[in-house]
Design a protein that fits this description.
Helix content is 23%, strand content 37%. The chain has six helices and 15 strands. A seven-stranded mixed sheet has the order 6-5-4-3-8-1-15, with no helix packed on it. Strands 9, 10, 11, 12, 13 and 14 form a six-stranded antiparallel sheet that branches. A two-stranded antiparallel sheet has the order 2-7. Strand 12 and strand 13 form a beta hairpin. The N and C termini lie far apart (74 Å). The structure holds zinc ion (ZN). Zinc ion binds next to strand 12.
């Protein structure tokens, strides 16, 4: 009798263990699940939310890495510019330092994809400005009303980039944060431009037009691109087939008023 009771209690203990184990597995899968079909761009929060000062991150960089190995964005409280390249996520901070982002950090806004080269171009002529680069990109990769990712590895006679300072609450609107930007100029530098072109009609999701971040080959210089010139370069384009938007789960996003201008 005692033996049977003990056997039963062992059996029920192992069943309890199995139930707990499967619950833990479901939780684990549930936490990290962000989709990754080909040619999908994942948008964390929206540009109108960022414009309105919604800078509370609620997606970790470990989770973001499940949705892409390439892209741009920022950090909790706008603590610098983000550049994702070859699966590494870099943080270009306001003090000019560039570090590999801690996976536990959170992002309030990011655009990422698993980059695959769909079209490749060698730059045919030197370009003297960012405006000329935009015109060149529009010529070689004509907008097709689908967003596309751009990776341009090249030699830059000149780049001007910026980063932004971490904000404290109450968060000011984006325009006020950009007014506090620090800018840097670099001459004769090799690096990569990382970013996207988004169509005007998707402006409720992301800033329309070109949005590029720069990172140097030695990963010591990085930021949001303001101006550049190019001597030579290889341009890879990846057209996107679908967009996934991950809305912030924060109370501030739920209460934000999107009917008025920020
Ligand atoms: Zn930027």
């Amino acid at each position: 009798m005692l033996k049977l009771a003990r056997r039963l209690s062992i059996r029920s203990a192992s069943r309890r263990f199995l139930i707990l184990l499967s619950a833990a597995l479901v939780t684990l899968v549930g936490c990290t699940a962000l989709p990754r079909p080909a040619n999908e761009v994942t948008q964390i929060s929206t540009y109108p939310a960022l414009e309105r000062g919604l800078y509370d991150g609620d997606v970790t960089y470990a989770q973001l890495a499940q949705a892409g190995n390439f892209g741009i964005g920022t950090f909790d409280g706008m603590d610098g510019e983000m550049i994702a390249l070859d699966g590494k996520f870099y943080q270009a901070r306001f003090d000019g330092s560039v570090i590999v982002a801690d996976k536990g950090l959170e992002t309030p806004f990011a655009t990422v994809t698993f980059f695959t080269t769909e079209q490749r171009f060698e730059l045919a002529e030197p370009l003297a400005s960012y405006d000329l680069l935009k015109a060149y990109l529009a010529k070689i990769a004509p907008p097709t009303n689908r967003p596309y990712a751009i990776r341009l590895k090249g030699t830059f006679p000149y780049v001007r980039i910026r980063s932004i300072p971490q904000q404290s609450k109450p968060f000011p609107p984006l325009a006020d944060v950009v007014a506090q930007q620090a800018t840097w100029e670099q001459k004769d530098i090799r690096g990569t431009l990382v970013g996207y072109w988004f169509p005007q009609y998707l402006s409720a999701l992301n800033a329309p037009g070109y949005h590029l971040h720069f990172i140097s080959d030695d990963r010591q210089v990085a930021g949001h691109l303001l101006e550049c010139s190019l001597d030579s370069g290889t341009i890879d384009i990846d057209y996107q087939d679908r967009v996934t938007v991950r809305f912030p789960q924060t109370a501030a996003f739920g209460a934000a008023d999107f009917s008025t201008k920020p």
